[in-house]
Design the sequence.
């Protein structure tokens, strides 16, 4: 079983397909769940606390907007765990928690810099495109079975 | 003894054969120690990782190509996320769900093809127009305009 980072990270389709084809999806929902389950001063549980942009400094410089750093505090740990990635470019749903264009660019850059097996796709809009989308993901995930489980972490440090 | 982590999973149905109520009954039958909430899109299951995963595995077998599952951060009926307590409006995650829901029938079709082992040929993508071809078109149009 390989840990596959998915992007957009809250995608039902990607999360389901990765799980269905026998791998572990790394999605932001799990990180949000941790925040909600962990007892703390921030009650009611909020997704991003003032502490998070500080954690995000590991991935982006201090002059980068706090929104980027806050998001990176959730997505960064997932990226570090990732052994493979599926990136869907140009989704309609680039708003809300996935709505920061600069974070999206940074995530894509960090995935490329990590040098892990990556599948780049376009979001499907027609039946034929959706079929192609699923078949490509199936082939990619089937090919991951041979991947070494110990992927070295190259995400942090150089940026 | 280490306590097992509690997780929530969202089950989204795209089926005319299976109803959320059928799935709920299946979970009751399985005696899995989970909390289940029936919703308009399917259901939300909450419990320990092993119990939830076991329940999800059983659910998937009911209608494997039309049942989609993803993890969810917040528990079912969470008062801070529920619209009843927030004065209405779309629930966080609704927009993503709305967009992806339209694609689910296509995804089901593709999954059925994979299940049946139907060989798939990737469609040949049309290439972008070359600069030479663009020049030809411009010249043709210019000649017609004269």
Sequence:
């Amino acid at each position: 079983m390989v840990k596959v980072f998915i992007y957009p990270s809250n995608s039902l389709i990607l999360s389901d397909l990765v799980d269905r084809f026998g791998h572990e999806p790394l999605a932001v929902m799990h990180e949000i769940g941790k925040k909600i389950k962990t007892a703390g001063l921030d009650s009611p549980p909020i997704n991003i606390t003032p502490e998070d942009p500080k954690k995000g400094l590991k991935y982006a410089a201090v002059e980068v907007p706090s929104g980027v750093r806050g998001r990176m505090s959730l997505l960064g740990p997932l990226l570090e765990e990732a052994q493979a990635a599926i990136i869907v470019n140009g989704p309609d749903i680039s708003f809300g928690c996935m709505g920061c264009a600069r974070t999206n660019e940074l995530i894509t850059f960090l995935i490329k810099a990590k040098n892990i097996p990556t599948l780049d796709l376009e979001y499907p809009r027609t039946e034929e495109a959706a079929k192609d989308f699923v078949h490509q993901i199936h082939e990619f995930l089937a090919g991951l079975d041979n991947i070494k489980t110990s992927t070295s972490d190259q995400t942090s440090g150089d940026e | 003894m280490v306590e097992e982590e509690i997780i929530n999973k969202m089950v989204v149905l795209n089926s005319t054969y299976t109803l959320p109520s059928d799935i709920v009954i299946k979970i009751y039958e399985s005696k899995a120690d989970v909390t289940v909430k029936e919703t308009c899109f399917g259901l939300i299951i909450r419990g320990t990782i092993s119990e939830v995963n076991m329940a999800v595995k059983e659910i998937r077998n009911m209608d494997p190509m039309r049942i989609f599952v993803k993890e969810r951060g917040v528990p079912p009926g969470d008062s801070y996320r529920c619209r009843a307590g927030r004065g209405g409006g779309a629930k966080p995650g609704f927009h993503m769900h709305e967009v992806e829901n339209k694609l689910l029938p296509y995804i089901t079709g593709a999954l059925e093809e994979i299940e049946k082992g139907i060989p798939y040929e990737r469609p040949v993508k049309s290439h972008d127009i070359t600069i030479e071809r663009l020049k030809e078109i411009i010249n043709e149009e210019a000649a017609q305009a004269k």
About this structure: The CA atoms of residues 49 and 82 of chain B lie 23 Å apart. Chain B has one domain: 6-116. The longest strand of chain B covers residues 6-13.
